[in-house]
Amino acid sequence: MVDVDPEQTPSSDEPTSDASDETSKKKKKGNFWKELPVLILVAFGLAIGIQIFLGRVYMIPSESMETTLHGCTDCYGDRVLVDKVTYRFTEPSPGDVIVFRGPPSWQNDFITDEPANPISQGLSWLGSLIGLPSANEEDFVKRVIAVGGQTVKCCDEQNRVTVDGKPLDEPYKHFDEGTPAEQESFEELKIPDGMLFVLGDNRNHSCDSRCQGQGGINGLVPVDNVIGKARVIVLPPSRWGGVSDHNPQVVSMGAPGWQQSVPMGVGIVAAWPLLLLGRRVRDRFRR
């Protein structure tokens, strides 16, 4: 006869493996629903932090930057990713396409009414937290033409804008079909330190430093008002691509080409931690 250890004898009261698996699954489901609100709060917190410190998507609602950025009435306005990191290390440079808060002397050329419905207002507010653009914001997008200490004027004998007496190279410049390819002239203007002279690429369909505040000093943009640099067109998919930051003064001033790649490099390096963090959060949701 074989002796049987009573401690090793299975008891009918002990749960079977199937029952243990079922209990484990229930615990996992319970933990997921407990963690979900925390994950949602973390996601919103990350979204708010990203748009405040790193970058944000903006909508282009006007035609002033055609054809670099589409914003016409009859087409789908571009959504651009604006890099907020670069100008923490450098100043805006000629050729940069920037988003900035309009100075008091500027009047926005495209403003929509706030939704009257409380639900729509709430959804709009939530959208702004995660970076969805609002068309009624007093923000503008233009290209930097001259910076503090430089003198700008239009035009020379070949109808070109000049900076410090030298003509600019502007391949991005656009004139609407059926309109004369001639720029609106303006008097010579010395740019004070800390200010920017900006123009739209759609040169005769843009109210910019030439006409805002009736031009002159009132049309300039303080560097402190700059939000960031437009980097990439993210929507619509057919328009995916980088935003040109060709320096129009390179040819005339002889600035070294490597300088143009420094801000982009800084922006890319700063974006890597954000991408890794976003992947971890996404993987957490999937599990």
From TrEMBL:
<dbReference type="Pfam" id="PF10502">
    <property type="entry name" value="Peptidase_S26"/>
</dbReference>
<keyword id="KW-0645">Protease</keyword>
<keyword id="KW-0378">Hydrolase</keyword>
<comment type="similarity">
    <text>Belongs to the peptidase S26 family.</text>
</comment>
<keyword id="KW-0472">Membrane</keyword>
<dbReference type="InterPro" id="IPR019758">
    <property type="entry name" value="Pept_S26A_signal_pept_1_CS"/>
</dbReference>
<keyword id="KW-1133">Transmembrane helix</keyword>
<feature type="transmembrane region" description="Helical">
    <location>
        <begin position="36"/>
        <end position="59"/>
    </location>
</feature>
<protein>
    <recommendedName>
        <fullName>Signal peptidase I</fullName>
        <ecNumber>3.4.21.89</ecNumber>
    </recommendedName>
</protein>
<keyword id="KW-0812">Transmembrane</keyword>
<feature type="domain" description="Peptidase S26">
    <location>
        <begin position="34"/>
        <end position="234"/>
    </location>
</feature>
<dbReference type="InterPro" id="IPR036286">
    <property type="entry name" value="LexA/Signal_pep-like_sf"/>
</dbReference>
<dbReference type="InterPro" id="IPR019533">
    <property type="entry name" value="Peptidase_S26"/>
</dbReference>
<feature type="region of interest" description="Disordered">
    <location>
        <begin position="1"/>
        <end position="26"/>
    </location>
</feature>
<dbReference type="InterPro" id="IPR000223">
    <property type="entry name" value="Pept_S26A_signal_pept_1"/>
</dbReference>
